[in-house]
Design goal:
With 245 residues, the protein is mainly beta. The chain has one domain (3-243): Exo-inulinase, domain 1 (Jelly Rolls). It contains two helices and 17 strands. The strands form two sheets. Strands 1, 3, 4, 6, 11, 12, 13, 14, 15 and 17 form a ten-stranded mixed beta sheet that branches. Strands 2-5-16-7-8-9-10 form a seven-stranded antiparallel beta sheet, with no helix packed on it. The longest helix is centred in the first third of the chain and has 12 residues, at 3-14. The protein is globular. The two termini are 27 Å apart.
């Protein structure tokens, strides 16, 4: 485990020594307040299994074959709390076929430091667009709530822990699915402020969640997923984050 990650996590817990908008060790923010956290050349600032994660042609590639697949994650060295994350992702064809399952872990927990297994909130996407745009509780860390907020819906978990309230967004599940590109680049904006989560793909809000439950996650790991069981190549580029006070 990168010592800088552990140091940043400790600083976050004890609450001193880190500027409110830029985590210790991160580059300076641009005019809009965003910090580039992938340099386009190597995995500096990230930790994961080297046999699964590489950088090629300016993008992060998580590649596996089904026979040697593994549930593993590429973990950013600084924890996240309230933020806006922007990146682009693509499931690249492997031997002419687009397949796979991935997502962005945020406010999550590193469950296994050796194999880089992570659980918690996940902004989900998959090669077939069945789940792209939902929020999922990976490994049950957020209270075992599985699919937490569906595509095309706003979900509100109240403090009393009762069944969440849902309402429809402006675009339906089917309309949002059509706007997500298969085998090509998709642009993500993920915003987490307090108990409010907004997930956008290609400019459209795919799902929105308010989590006031006692099981809500407030701070934790940021990571990229490589899901077991597939022959796949998930790619990421243009990864930037803005932290809120």
């Amino acid at each position: 485990m990168d010592l800088r990650f552990l140091f940043a996590a400790l600083v976050a817990v004890i609450g001193f020594g880190t500027p409110s908008l830029v985590a210790a060790g991160e580059p300076k923010a641009d005019a809009e307040g965003f910090v580039t956290i992938f340099n386009g050349k190597d995995l500096t600032g990230w930790s994961g299994l080297k046999e699964y994660w590489t950088v090629k042609d300016g993008v992060i590639s998580g590649f596996e074959t089904k026979d040697k697949s593994k549930q593993t994650f590429l973990v950013y060295e600084m924890p996240v709390k309230d933020f806006e994350l922007r990146l682009s992702f693509k499931f690249a064809p492997v031997k002419g076929k687009v397949d796979g399952n991935s997502g962005i872990q945020f406010r999550s927990k590193l469950l296994n430091e050796k194999s880089f297994v992570v659980g918690g909130y996940q902004a989900d996407f998959d090669g077939g667009n069945g789940y792209t745009g939902i929020i999922y509780d990976e490994a049950g860390v957020a209270g075992g709530r599985s699919i937490m907020s569906k595509r095309g819906e706003k979900t509100h978990y109240t403090a009393d822990g009762k069944k969440p309230m849902t309402s429809k967004l402006g675009m339906s599940d089917a309309e949002l699915k059509k706007a997500i590109k298969v085998g090509d680049w998709n642009d993500v904006v993920l915003i987490a402020k307090g108990n409010h989560i907004i997930y956008r793909i290609n400019g459209n809000v795919t799902t929105e969640m308010i989590d006031e439950s006692p099981k809500a996650l407030k701070e934790g790991v940021l990571a990229l997923q490589l899901h077991a069981g597939y022959t796949m190549d998930i790619q990421f580029k243009n990864i930037r984050i803005k932290r809120f006070e």
